[in-house]
Predict the 3D structure of the following.
Amino acid sequence: MLALLDFLWFQGKFLGVEWGVWKLVGWLGNAVFTARFLVQWRASEKRGQVVVTSLFWWLSIIGSLLLLAYALFYRRDSVMIAAYAFNWIPYFRNLLLHHRNKNARRLCPAPTCGVASSSEANFCAACGRKLT
Ligand SMILES: [Zn+2]
C-alpha cells in the first residue's frame, strides 16, 4: 500500500505531474473533450444509428474553451492556441442548429411511443400513427 502511495505521490508530484490550477484546467478540458466521444458513442449504440446529441456539442464547446484557456494562459503555445481558438464556433453553430431542428420536430402522440419525427413527416416512423 505504501509503495502504491509512493508511486502515486512522489516528491510533491502526483503521477509524476506537477499540479497547479492551470494544469487542472487543462486536464479538466481534456476529460470534458474526451467525454463527448463516450456520450456520442453511447447515444449511437442506444439508437442503433449515428446520433449526435446536444450534450455532445456542449461538451465540445466547454472542453475546447477550457483547453483554449490552458493554451493561452499557461502553455502560451501558438500551435495549441491555433488548435482551439476557433473550433468552438462550429460547435456553437451546430448546437444552435440542433435546437432549431429539435424545436421543429413533431412528437408522436401515442403514449407508449413519443418518438420525434421531422417537421415534414405525416406519420410516426416508429409506430406509424398519424402525426397531428
Ligand atoms: Zn409513434
Remarks:
- Residues 21-47 form the longest helix (27 residues).
